[in-house]
């Protein structure tokens, strides 16, 4: 396996012996799987933007998923808060300390006799698509309000931005806190449909913000 650690030592990227890159959603799924197998019936904390594959892993391992806002501080606060009783240290290191997290992953692989490829193969296939679209500061509130109104009666979540669920897919429209943009992320049953869903809302944000 290969490992790349950022200069800040907060994040890592792994490569299994089949050449698959484990980063972003796949890395979150990997560390969630490790937590579920380490603590039976355990709970993992992930951002609202994380793939639903984590929920599938939780279901397979009798675990629970708590979602937070997307900022690292929100994830950190939830992990360190009172809601998570078990394995606080393990979750914190896997999310925010790349070197200690790598040691945790290697220890788990050794104790359970897994190769990294074995763990990655346990994660169901999933397809996500992400894009950014320009959106002025003044238009962000209008964009979110109109999208909520247009999806009245649908299953939506407004923990941060607006997340719309439909037919086994979802799309998240997330105004950036520091830049005049919105981030659009979707997940669906194929890469093509996930990208189509993302493009649909990229165009919708453009249309609303330019009115």
Automatic annotation (TrEMBL):
One GO-annotated biological process of the protein: carbohydrate metabolic process
Keywords: Isomerase, Magnesium, Metal-binding, Nucleotidyltransferase, Phosphoprotein, Transferase
UniProt domain Alpha-D-phosphohexomutase alpha/beta/alpha: residue ranges: 25-83
Superkingdom of origin organism: Bacteria
Hydrolase is among the record's keywords: no
Any one GO molecular function term: nucleotidyltransferase activity
The name this protein goes by in its record: Mannose-1-phosphate guanylyltransferase
